[in-house]
Design a protein that fits this description.
The chain is mainly β. The chain has a single domain, classed as GXWXG domain (Lipocalin, Beta Barrel). The protein contains 3 helices and 8 strands; from the N terminus they run ααβαβββββββ. It has an 8-stranded antiparallel beta barrel with strand order 1-2-3-4-5-6-7-8. It is globular, with a radius of gyration of 15 Å. It starts with 6 loop residues before the first helix and ends with a strand.
Length: 164
């Protein structure tokens, strides 16, 4: 019997468990990525990535709140990230296009979020997110930074659909 994966379970996984879960997750359809989703950065254990995030965002005040997806048709869409700084309203920034594409790790297809567009700051243009589906309301993503020759995995994140 397949275990039910929740956001809480993802938050308690180490890198190896997140990778296994990511590889086994389904490929979403473009239409699955529709509307606002709550975002959670997954930084297992006491990794260097958690230390970096804690350095720049003490007290877990991390400005990224999630993403908004707008499918344009069955093969592509556009979206942006929801950011909130202390004492400010949520605003949208860091636009992306999304399509179905090959996973960087070569394991199945994923939804690829491409930030390489003129409206983004140059350091944001080097980011790529790959997203897979855990269930109808929960998605698991990997953020990569690109160099001239390769992609470097940076962190995992969860996306959870907001229900009213």
């Amino acid at each position: 019997m397949k275990r039910k994966i929740t956001l809480r379970k993802l938050q308690n996984m180490d890198n190896a468990e997140l990778y296994k879960t990511y590889i086994q997750a389904e490929t979403p359809k473009i239409k699955d990525m529709n509307g606002p989703v709550k975002g959670t950065v997954l930084t297992p254990g006491h990794s260097s990535k958690r230390k970096i995030l804690n350095h720049f965002f003490p007290n877990n005040i991390f400005p990224w709140q999630g993403k908004t997806f707008i499918p344009l048709n069955d093969v592509e869409g556009i979206g942006d990230n929801q950011l909130k700084k202390p004492n400010e309203e949520v605003h949208n920034d860091y636009n992306f296009k999304f399509t179905l594409g090959d996973a960087i790790d070569g394991e199945n297809a994923v939804i690829v979020l491409d930030y390489n567009n003129i409206s983004n700051a140059s350091n944001i243009r080097f980011i790529r997110d790959d997203v897979k589906k855990i269930n109808d309301s929960l998605f698991l993503g990997r953020m990569y930074s690109t160099t001239l020759t390769k992609y470097k995995p940076m962190l995992y994140f969860a996306l959870q659909k907001k229900y009213k």
